Predict the structure.
Amino acid sequence: MKALILVGGKATRLLPLSINTPKPMVPVLNVPVLEHIIIHLRQHGIREIILAQGYMAQSIESYFGDGSRFEVTVHHSYESVPLGSAGAAKNAARYLSDTFLVLNSDIISDLDFTAMLALHRQSKAKATIATIPVEDPTKYGLVENDISGKVSRFLEKPRPEEVTTNMINAGAWFVEAGILQDIPENTSYSFERNVFPSLLAHALPVYAFPSSDYWIDMGTTEKYLQLHRDLLDGKCRRFRLPAARFVAGAGSDIADKVQTAGRVLLGARCHILPGAILNGPLVMGDDCTVAEDASLSDTVIWRNVRIGRSAVVSGSVIADRCNLEEGCLVENAVLGDGVTVCSGVKVPPGSKIDPGTIVSPQER
Ligand code: GDD
Ligand code: MG
């Protein structure tokens, strides 16, 4: 079984995090989100993976290479212009045959691909779409099905008045390679807006695979932080949490007088100085330093970040190489790579700050 993973989007809803980092490389518990997806596929015996590449392909290719480091085979298929989900599949057609799985690269879930494939085969569908209930279907692709599971309607990003169900496309579908024939070459084309509605219009069998398993699209900064809260809370079952609630990577040193509570995950070579308070959910990447009496809670911090003495950080995402100087306050904010928050500055809650910005007292 092969899986085509769509990794080519520009991830504008993840700005400013995605300016230097394509969405599949955004760290989740300190490893790229795409690595978690590949592990998920491997758990279901799917070991041949095609990455449909576009935005910042080089960074994804240099990390995943031929896949051998992850015990899978990875092929890279490149789009010079974004071709959409179906255009991406057509562009990768030389790798695809029989039945294959298509996945979005921003979904972390407990979806049971094995059971889903069994349903796909049993119903002899042309496509089987995993579906999941959400509060607001307008942000997703709405999927209506009858009592037998047969899909009757697919509507991408419905307007509020068009919402008839809370079940949406979970961003995972099995398809028969035969349908690639009807997808135009080198043209932007979408499974969600073109292929699924067209299969339904021609009365071809499309089935839903409804699931109530854990599922999240981490494609916005808010959902990215929520994903970390959920994972550290044990909501996604396939993530086995360590028995210890405080875990630090190799070479980290944690002073004796550090207070911690909740789940805290630190990368390698972190230095936590006396008096620091680390309240989970908290994830910190490699090579970070937290100075005396700084207080961190409910936050995701990437690599090489320095948190100054008595700084307070909560409900935030702090990307690589940020420098938060002494006594600053960062609440409910997202800081791109290399942001400096000057000493004593309070960052306005809700701020999203571009890479390299120096937030100085004058800008308060
Ligand atoms: N190769 C390639 N080419 N990949 C692309 C392109 C493209 O032109 N455009 C987007 N992608 C990738 C993105 O990188 C992402 O992994 C995936 O396709 C989905 O794109 P999103 O931009 O995250 O889509 P969405 O979240 O608005 O909607 C999709 O996902 C929902 C579930 O989260 C749709 O499939 C919805 O129907 C679905 O409900
Ligand atoms: Mg998405």
Observations:
- Residues 329 and 346 are 5 Å apart (CA to CA).
- The longest strand covers residues 167-176.
- Residues 104, 106, 217, 219 surround magnesium ion (ligand 2) (CB under 6 Å).
